[in-house]
Amino acid sequence: MRTRAKICGITRLQDVKAVVDAGADAIGFVFYPPSPRAVSAEQAAELIQAIPPYVQTVGLFVNQTLEQIQAIINIANIDILQFHGDESAETCQAIAAHVGRRWYKAIQVKPDLDVVAEIAKYQAAGASAVLLDAWHPELKGGTGHSFDWTTFPKLNLPLILAGGLNPDNIEQAILTTQAYAVDVSGGVESAKGIKDQQLIERFMQGVLRGSAK
């Protein structure tokens, strides 16, 4: 099975087209205002209109309330919730049930974290997947850093690899982790929030090569 790919932090219409044309499976929108890649619900709704069927839309949220997330979904009809903050399994489950969306949780791989035990909490709460990202003491994703891929677990749950991925290392990353999916943002940008069509194409070519081996 081919490794799935999500391009996150989309802010422009031309980037939507580049991602779709390159064959990505999902497009991510950041609804975390401090992020340089953040978009408003209105901006996301406009961009989503240009996304064809069979390409999923994901909303990234960081420690936001049910009310905040509901207000965004009322305007931007995203398919899946990505919780990227300190949300507990119970919080993720409750918010997703209320807004009627599937969800997954991003976990930062800290040096002392029992990753498998942490994943189990969210799996038990109904997560459709878990994303493993590099740990940073201040930033919530988009760090450009990676973690030790040889520690990537093999579990009966779709696991998504993120953190420091780019066109030059994506093939090796897939070969090492056998991840269900990969998630890239800064690795295919010319500037924060500005995607580069050639980098996106090279990244997706690397995904295909890594999946085929």
The CATH homologous superfamily is termed Aldolase class I
What is the typical, i.e. mean, pLDDT? 95
Reading off the top of the CATH hierarchy, the class is best stated as Alpha Beta
Termini separation: 11 Å
Helical/strand content category: alpha/beta
Tally of discrete structural domains: 1
Strand content: 15-25%
Reported CATH architecture? Alpha-Beta Barrel
Provide the gyration radius in Å: 16 Å
Q: What is the CATH topology assignment?
A: TIM Barrel
Please tally the β strands and state the result. 10
Can you summarize the main beta sheet?
Answer: 8 strands, parallel, barrel
Low-pLDDT segments? none
What fraction, in percent, of the residue positions are helical?
25-40%
Main sheet strand line-up: 1-2-3-4-5-6-7-8
Number of helices: 7
Helix and strand pattern: EHEHEHEHEHEEHEEEH
Assembly state of the chains shown: single chain
Sum up the overall morphology in one term. globular
Question: Could you list some keywords that capture this structure?
Answer:
eight-stranded parallel beta barrel, globular, 34% helix, TIM Barrel, single chain, alpha/beta, 213 residues, two-stranded antiparallel sheet
